[in-house]
Amino acid sequence: MAFLPRCLAVLLLLGNTTAFHANRLFQQFDTASRPPRSGPPTKRDGGSMAPLKITNNCGETLWPGIGTQAGTGPGIGGFELAPGEGVDLMVSANWQGRVWGRTNCSFNAAGTGPADGEGPSCDSGDCQGVLDCVATGVSPATLAEYDLAGGNGNRQCFYDISLVDGYNLPLGIVMLPGSDPKLADVPPNLTNAVCIATAGYAAPPAPSGQNGGSGNTSFPIPWEPIQGNAQIASWCPWDLLTIQPDKPGDGVYPYPDDHIKRPTFDPCGSGCAKTNSPQDCCTGEYSDRAKCVPNMYSHQSNKVCPDAYGFPFDDESSTFVIPGGGGGGFETIFCPEGRSSNILKTFKQQLQDLTSASPAKLGEIMQDAGNLTIIMEAAKKMSRGERSRGELGDMGSVGALVVVIAWLVLS
Ligand SMILES: *[C@@H]1O[C@H](CO)[C@@H](O)[C@H](O)[C@H]1NC(C)=O
Ligand SMILES: *[C@@H]1O[C@H](CO)[C@@H](O)[C@H](O)[C@H]1NC(C)=O
Ligand SMILES: *[C@@H]1O[C@H](CO)[C@@H](O)[C@H](O)[C@H]1NC(C)=O
Ligand SMILES: *[C@@H]1O[C@H](CO)[C@@H](O)[C@H](O)[C@H]1NC(C)=O
């Protein structure tokens, strides 16, 4: 009964130009051998399953969406999640898909459309108005992207926080070892990436309490040292704000003015999501690293969330690779505590060692991961780099103006 509408909806979504852009890297993996099924996983998935947990740490209700691109999904594509609540789902150990948050939704009683009968059902992340998303949603939305069994003969797990399709909510990823013994001892500070780009949600830098409590003083998650709530309040290029606050002087002057208060939840569209142009999305003749240059949105998103993917060619600097396919999974936390993480730059070598999977090295990796000196040094290095470019501290209005104008020229 439910099967036919699902197929139709998939066809409809394929023609939707505002749908999320996939991580380029993921497209290279073999997915033919693991056709997408909505799930939940059963014996036919070889009994090999992975945990997929979703937690809402925000102060208001969210409606998470789950998209399955390969393997067997959790059997549900979206649901309502009250503040402070979490759900434990399972997917197949070779699942590829994404999780995002929808905000301020209002569905009809059957969950088949908006309560008022027309338009989207959610302010952000909407998936064709339905509660139980079928394939994907609309940008802007912060995405958690996972391929539990991607490269190297399906033995590696790839994941990232993607801002390529814009940003709507703070998001953290916590690796759950599941039944995979290879992951049981992997330090959380190597794996648990966080992106917090909503003003008021960033905590002061601290070696504990990070990412939903998954980091602590013995394994502090490397943090982004510069972007406090004052900077975060104005990171999104003005033209990409979903809700544009009223500007004084009929919007003619001053333009743009970062002293104008923006709403706390104001989704930021990426250049790609806004223009959908080959130039901004690195597609077509621009699907070449040498031709596609990061736009101002990419620069800004990299600053507030160094571990997130803000530009389609960010693969190296923002995709996490750990041993995969063995039953390890993830928790996606909306509005995690703490600070944006800076893991990839701090622990590049350790992460490489981890994927080369020499168990003998795990001891060393663990030691480095718990080494506060390394984490502090990385934070200092980052502050120095920013200072030498004159970007430290609260961006004065001159700095902000330069940033926005440069964005207009580039885009
Ligand atoms: C720190 O985190 C690790 C890994 O999650 C955990 O095993 C350990 O008990 C924690 N230590 C403290 C002091 O909470
Ligand atoms: C790094 O991971 C180790 C191993 O679980 C953990 O004990 C440590 O607390 C982590 N560091 C941070 C900063 O989370
Ligand atoms: C939901 O809507 C209310 C009222 O307009 C607003 O205050 C709140 O910030 C919105 N929440 C999100 C997450 O957008
Ligand atoms: C931590 O790292 C620093 C810098 O690499 C090193 O000098 C120090 O010996 C390390 N400390 C421990 C306890 O491993």
UniProtKB/TrEMBL annotation:
Signal peptide extent: 1-19
Key words of the record: Signal
InterPro entries from the UniProt entry: Osmotin/thaumatin-like_sf (IPR037176), Thaumatin (IPR001938)
Entry protein name: Thaumatin family-domain-containing protein
Region (Disordered): 31-50
